[in-house]
Amino acid sequence: MRMPMRNWASAGEPWVWLNAAAVTASLVMVFGLLGLIAVKGLAHFWPHDILEADYVAGSVQQVIMGEFVESEEVPAGQLTTAGVSVPDGVEFMQRDLLKIGNRDVGGFDFRWMLDADLKNKRYPKDAIAIERREWGNFYGYLVSVMEDGRVIAEGELAWNVLQERLQRALGLHDQIYKIEKNEIGSVNYTIERMRLKERGYELDGSYTAEKQAEIAAIRSEQETIYKSLQESLIDLYTQANRDSIKVRTAQGQEITLPLEKIVRVFRPNAMSLSAKLSFYGEKLWEFVADDPREANTEGGIFPAIYGTVLMVVIMSILVTPMGVVAAIYLREYAHQGAMTRIIRIAVNNLAGVPSIVYGVFGLGFFIYFVGSGIDQAMFPEALPSPTFGTPGLMWASITLALLTLPVVIVATEEGLSRIPRTMREGSLALGATKAETLWRVIIPMASPAIMTGVILAIARAAGEVAPLMLVGVVKLAPSLPLDGNYPFLHLDQKFMHLGFHIYDVGFQSPNVEAARPLVYATSLLLVLVIALLNMSAVSIRNRLREKYKALEM
C-alpha cells in the first residue's frame, strides 16, 4: 500500500530528500571545482605541440611560431571598434592566444591573433622549445652547437650533441648551486655568528685576548674555506660558460644562447606518447620539488610547500595544549556562573573575528612589543638589525594559534561535556584524585574531540593568507627555516606559504598569462596539502576513538 501524502510528509520524508539533494549538490560543486582547477593547472605541464603559421593581417605578413593556449569568440563590433577589418555579415570571429615565447627578442611571450589571419598552419618536426632560467621559453630551430665560440656540430647532428652537452651543463649548475647556497651559505652564517659573538663580548666588557684568539682562529678557518670554494666556483663557471648553441627564430633571426642558462630542450612535435608522458612526470616532479624562478612563474614551489607544512605543525603544537588547558579549566574547574558564561561567549565571538584583525594584533603586540623586547634583552649585539622584532615563522605560528584557539576550546569542551558523570564518580570512588581522574580517564576519553578541534584548526590555518602577510610570509625566501646550521630551526626567519604564493602569482605577477596555469596548479596542491594534513589528524582521531570506545559504553 502506498503511504498517504499527509503521512509521508508528517514522517519527515521531504526533509530527508531535501537534505540528500543539498548534500549531492554540494558534492557536485566541490568536485566540479576541484576538477576545473585540476584540468586548468595540470594541463600546463603537458608538452604541447608547436604551431607555425603565416600571419597575414592587412599589410603585416610574418611567420608566427608558438604553443596554442586557448581560443574565444569575439563580437564583430568589438573588432571593428579596434580598427580590425571584418567581412560583411560576420557577427563573431575566433581569435587564438598563442604562447610565442622569445621575450628577449619580441618583448612579450603571449599574443592574441585572429584565427582567420593564420594561414598555412603546420607543425614542423624539427621545431624546438627551450626552457630557460631567464626570459621564459624560446621557440625556433637549432642551428649549431658551439664550444668556446667554435661550431662543433650543425644540422641534425647538433641535436644529439646538444643533449650530451646540456646534461653536462645541468650537472655543473647543480654543483654551483650546492656550493653557493649550501656551502658558502654555511660559511657566511658561521662568520656572521662570530661577528655577533664578538659584538656581544664587547658589550659585556668580557672580550679577553683568549676570546679574541678563539674568534680569530674560527674566522681565519672560515675565510680559508671561503677562498677554496670561490676558486672552485670560478673553475665551474669557466666550464659552464664553455658551451653554447645558435638558434633561429621563425622569422629567421639567429641568436646565441649559453647552455648554463637553459633548463631543458625538447621537440614536442616529434615526441611519442610515452616520451610526452615521461616529460609530463618530470615537469610535475619539478613543480613539487624545485625552487621557483622567473618571478615565481616558472620552476617549482617546494619552499612554499615546506613553509606551509612547517608553520601548520608548529601552530598545532602551540594551539593544542593552550586550547585543551583552557577548555579543561572552563569545564572541570571554573565555577559555572555568570563570569564563565561571559568567557564562553567571548570565545565564541573570537571565532568570528576577521583573520586580518589577528594579523594586525600579531604585528603590533608580538613583533613590535614582544619581539623588540626580546631583541633588547637577548640579542643586543645584533641591534639595530632586528632578530625577533621583525616578521618571522614564530610570530606567524603564534598568530595563527590564537586565530584557531577558539575552535580547539569549543571542540574540547564539547568532548568533555559528553563524558558521563559516572566515569568521574567511579574514578574518584576507587581512590583516584581529581587530577589523576582528569589525566587518566577524562582527557583520554575526550581525545577524539580534541583531535576534531585540531583538524578544524589545521583546515582553517593552512589556507589563511591575510594575517601572514603582516607577520612573516614573503614572496621569495632565500633559504628554508629548517636547515643544517645551528640552531637548525630558525624561528626568526621569514618563509614562503602556498596561499600567499597563489595571491602573489595571481595578482602581482608581471606576466599574467604565464602565471594563470600556475595559480590553478598551486591551488590544487594547497587543497591536497590541507587534505593530507587533515587525513593524518583524522587517522589519529579514529585510532583514539576505537581505543576508548569501550570506556564510553
Topology:
Elements: H1 5-10, H2 13-42, E1 50-57, E2 60-75, H3 76-81, E3 92-99, H4 103-106, E4 110-114, E5 118-122, E6 127-132, E7 138-147, E8 150-154, H5 157-204, H6 209-240, E9 243-248, E10 254-258, E11 262-266, H7 273-289, E12 292-293, E13 298-299, H8 302-333, H9 338-350, H10 355-378, H11 393-417, H12 421-429, H13 434-462, H14 468-471, H15 498-507, H16 512-547, H17 549-552
Antiparallel strand pairs: 1-2, 1-5, 2-3, 3-4, 6-7, 6-11, 7-8, 7-9, 9-10, 12-13
Helix pairs in contact: 2-16, 5-6, 8-11, 8-13, 10-11, 11-13, 12-13, 13-16, 15-16
Any key phrases for this structure?
MetI-like fold, flat, 6-stranded antiparallel β-sheet, alpha+beta, 3 domains, 5-stranded antiparallel β-sheet, about 550 residues
Which of globular, elongated, flat, extended, rod-shaped describes the shape?
A: flat
SSE class: alpha+beta
Would you list the SSEs in sequence order as H and E? HHEEHEHEEEEEHHEEEHEEHHHHHHHHHH
What is the count of distinct domains? 3
Total DSSP E strands:
13
The helical percent reads: 55-70%
Strand count, sense and barrel status of the largest sheet are: 6 strands, antiparallel
The CATH level-2 architecture of the largest domain is identified as Orthogonal Bundle
| Strand residue percentage | 15-25%
Q: Can you tell me the CATH topology of the largest domain? A: MetI-like fold
The number of distinct helices, counting runs of at least 4 residues, comes to 17
